[in-house]
Amino acid sequence: MPFGQLVIGPPGSGKSTYCYGMYQFLQAVGRKTSVVNLDPANDRTNYPCALDIRDFTTLEDVMDQENLGPNGGVMFALEEVEQSLDEFVEQLKKLGENEYLVFDCPGQVELFTHHSALQHIFKRLEKLDYRLVVVHLIDSFYITSPSQYVSVLLMALRSMLQLDMPHINVLSKIDLLKSYGKLPFNLDFYTEVQDLSHLFPLIKKESPTFLGQKFAKLTEAIAEVVDDYGLVNFEVLAVEDKKSMIALLSVIDRANGYLFGSTEIGGDTVWAEATRQGGYLGNAVADIQERWIDYKEEYDEAETKEQEERMKQQEQDAPMSAEDEWQQALDDYQAQTGIRPMK
Q1: Residue 54: in which H helix or E strand, if any?
Q2: Model confidence over 53-95: pLDDT tens digits?
Q3: Angle 142-145-151 from CA coordinates, rounded to 5°
Q4: Confidence (pLDDT) at 339
Q5: Which of 106, 230, 256, 326 could be a cystine partner for 39, CB 3.0 to 4.6 Å?
């Protein structure tokens, strides 16, 4: 039974970086992982690509043959894959039933808000017993503006309703948030998406003009719709932060059922057993708030000193054996999560 993640999000949200970071992280915990590129415009993947949609169709060919622009070309290319889905599925099956799959999807918003090609592809895979979860990345920059934050909430809600699958919204690039200026609320206000009426005074201040006030009323109405549904919330992610990756993967594993399957599915017995016993025990949002917003400079300084000391120690010590390296990895995991992995 293959498990996997469907990584979506608008351009610039960090999908390819996330796919590569998640691939490296999964490899580190011992999970057999393959990354699948579903973007016909992505001709320079920065991760090892096990299966590429460009082997079936390319954006350049579609644009030339159909006289389409980039956005229309991407949608047409996915429609072609949808129409010849059997061939694509056969290539997926060759990767193996025990392979954990990460799908890097195109960034055109309309593909996961109202166009049906991606939805039909994903639903077909679900019928073939693929256990998938949508990971929707949204640049954390958008929470710095109340009106833009409400707009991404609406986009996230529409995506959840359109794709109709287990769905995790993620605020990415949290490590850059401090550089955008001080937020009017703590991070948990934006992740929990509760009582958006607190934003209304800020929305009105954004655009004091007459036309701006008209748009402010529209934004408030949209916020009320999102509130009424009560579906949207966010996880947080800094790809290079181990705690952040551990916390997010624990949530993903619960969402697609990986956590409750056989520990031999992906070959990562240590990770699966450890997460069954409680997973990440910290508060991911609170940890991110402290690490990347409240005390970023202090943490950066401490990590720099720790890295310098580690490098000096490595220069003095002989190279570790493979067994010692594995033990060090287990010790690091216990230090991060408070859980002693099973041997």
Answers
A1: none
A2: 988 888 899 899 999 998 899 999 999 888 888 988 999 989 8
A3: 60
A4: 58
A5: 106
pLDDT at 267: 60
Q: Is 127 left (phi over 0), alpha (psi -120 to 50) or beta?
A: alpha
Structural domains of the chain, with CATH: 3-193+230-282 (3.40.50.300)
Quickly list H helices, 207-283: 210-229, 242-256, 269-276
Backbone region of residue 230 per phi and psi (left: phi > 0; alpha: psi in -120 to 50; beta: other values)? left
**pLDDT the model gives residue 125:** 92
pLDDT of residue 288: 82
Q: Which two tokens stand for residue 308?
A: 């310098």
Question: Residue 38 and residue 274: Cα distance in Å, rounded?
Answer: 32
Q: Using N-to-C axis directions, what is the helix angle for 242-256 and 322-337, rounded to 10°? A: 80
**Rounded to whole angstroms, how far apart are CA atoms 334 and 47?**
28
Query: Tokens 């070959």 — which residue?
Result: 267
Please name the residue that has the structure tokens 């002989």.
Answer: 318
Please list, in sequence order, all residues whose beta carbon lies within 8 angstroms of the beta carbon of residue 144, skipping any fewer than 6 positions away: 177, 180, 181, 183
User: Phi/psi at 58 (nearest 5 deg)?
Assistant: -120, 155
Q: For 169, phi and psi rounded to 5 degrees?
A: -90, 135
C-beta of residue 143 within 8 angstroms of C-beta of residue 44: no
Place of tokens 């169709």: 57
Q: Are 341 and 274 in contact (CB under 8 A)?
A: yes
Amino acid at 257: G
By the 8 A CB rule, do 234 and 159 touch? no
- State the CB neighbour count (10 A cutoff) for residue 315: 7
**Residue numbers in the chain where pLDDT is lower than 70:** 260-283, 317-323, 325-327, 329-330, 333-343
Determine how β-strand 100-104 pairs with β-strand 131-139.
unpaired
d(CA 295, CA 67): 52
